[in-house]
Write a structure and sequence with these properties.
55% of the residues are buried. This protein has 14 helices and 17 strands. Helix content is 36%, strand content 21%. The protein binds zinc ion (ZN). The site of zinc ion has 6 residues, from loops. Zinc ion binds next to loops. One of its GO terms (molecular function) is metal ion binding.
Length: 459
């Protein structure tokens, strides 16, 4: 699309999620090329003559696209297993299955995960992929290609594990890489896929899996690699009481102190979960600008606990939302996390003051952009930012009787997505993906899930 061609979206409610929380009961958004050119109240300025398309969005709420900050796409093939386990038991049950994945499986799982999120309003996705069995093919390439086909903006967190059972870790030895192998493959993924430019469609982060599956050397050298390359760092942190105990036993300190000792606190780092954080851990995250991917559904599914999101926000910690892998959150939708972030945190000590509907929307948009290091580009509807936005239909049975569209979006049923744009390019129309075949993806995920189950059963 040429930079001067415009899309005008009008007659809609708008939640810009800018710093002032600006909203319009009836307004317009003008998209020029891949950027937002104007947002305002009332009718759109009469015709930019070169508007190629005018969308009458009566009955809709327009928001920034949702940003997912933690996921494991491959788990799309192992949903609905180990359904009554805590994290450690769940991991030990599933590792031997996961160790059988190969490139066609990962490709199908990535397509399934991406399709599910994209048709539900996600415009920026991420995949923390940390299982690379020997001879399994080019998994990073397969995942990146799936994201390009779907049309979403994407961060590949190239994960790794090098602490197998013989080194006191949780994963079986056959599921881990060597330290040098993991570092070299991560660097290769950065070199091949990471785009530093404004508006990048693909970025790569260095992402050793977690303290229970990774050596201290991999954490330290991974941090050095990321900083040498100018890319971000991601891992799991402070997810469960068992992990906390593991860190105290092995390292003589809690997870946050351990991360700090290995170079893993900083404004270029974000961590999934951060459930078991004391006041000084939260202060350390705030002081260093370390971000958090809050995954309320997964934390509930695995009985991990409730992250202290209101305290993190009060301290100034950047917080986004994550689906987490779909073996611990079978729905795979980010919309659900807006609602569950609000509900779960209200079960904590702050009760009804824990989070507002608008704060929940902010976590799923601007907060996500912050933790991915992309707040200058995405996460709010402001002139000059990338045109990543969603038209949510609010005049159907599910929402029509709710006057406040933001409350309807966050607290109500999943709102139908009439249209979703990434960099001004439409990827969803009336709930259907425009660039990939959803039904073909569903069939391939079923085939590959069966193949994985058979291989694992034989193994
Ligand atoms: Zn995870």
């Amino acid at each position: 699309m040429a930079a001067t061609q415009r899309i005008v979206i009008e007659n809609c409610a708008i939640a810009t999620v800018d710093a002032h929380g600006t909203e319009y009961g009836c307004g317009y958004v003008v998209v020029a090329g891949d950027r937002i050119e104007a947002v305002g109240a009332g009718r759109a300025p009469t015709g930019p003559a070169d508007a190629v398309r005018r969308i009458d969005a009566t009955g809709h709420l327009v928001t920034p696209g949702l940003v997912n900050t933690h996921h494991h796409f491959y788990q799309w093939l192992t949903r609905g297993l180990a359904t009554d386990h805590n994290l450690f038991d769940w991991l030990v049950t599933l590792y031997p299955v996961w160790a059988r994945i190969d490139e066609p499986m990962v490709s199908a799982a990535a397509r399934g995960s991406l399709a599910m999120m994209a048709r539900g309003g996600v415009t920026t996705a991420m995949d923390h992929h940390y299982i690379h069995p020997k001879g399994s093919g080019d998994l990073s390439g397969a995942i990146v290609r799936a994201a390009r086909e779907t049309g979403v903006r994407f961060t590949l967190a190239r994960g790794s594990m090098d602490r197998g059972e013989k080194d006191g870790g949780l994963p079986p030895d056959f599921a881990v890489e060597t330290l040098d192998g993991a570092l070299a493959a991560t660097e290769a993924a950065v070199d091949e896929h990471h785009d530093h430019s404004f508006g990048a469609m693909t970025q790569v982060a260095v992402a050793p899996c977690s303290p229970v599956s990774v050596s201290s050397d991999l954490l330290k050298q991974g941090a050095e690699l990321a900083r040498r390359k100018g890319v971000r760092l991601h891992t799991h942190g402070s997810e469960t009481v068992e992990e906390e105990r593991f860190c105290h036993e092995l390292f003589g300190m809690g997870p946050t102190d351990y991360f700090e000792s290995t170079g893993w606190l900083g404004e270029d780092v974000w961590m999934a979960h951060c459930v078991h954080m004391n006041d000084s851990d939260i202060a350390a995250f705030a002081r260093t600008g370390t971000g958090v991917a809050h995954c309320p559904s997964s934390n509930a599914r695995l009985a991990a606990g409730i992250a202290r999101v209101p305290d993190m926000l009060a301290a100034g910690v950047p917080v986004g939302l994550g689906v987490d892998g779909t073996a611990s959150n079978e729905s795979g939708e980010l919309h659900t996390e807006l609602r569950n972030a609000l509900l779960v945190n209200r079960l904590g000590p702050h009760r009804e003051a824990a989070l507002t509907a608008r704060q929940a929307l902010r976590l799923g948009t601007y907060g996500g952009a912050q933790v991915l290091g992309r707040a200058r580009e995405i996460g709010s509807l402001e002139p000059g930012k990338l045109a990543d936005l969603v038209l949510w239909r609010m005049d159907t049975l599910a929402h029509a009787s709710i006057a406040d569209p933001v409350a309807a979006l966050v607290l109500g049923a999943a709102a139908p997505v009439t249209a979703s744009f990434v960099g001004g390019r439409q990827i969803v129309e009336n709930g259907r993906l425009l660039h990939v075949d959803e039904d073909a993806i569903a069939r391939s995920t079923r085939t590959e899930a069966r193949r994985l189950a058979e291989l694992a059963g034989r193994g």
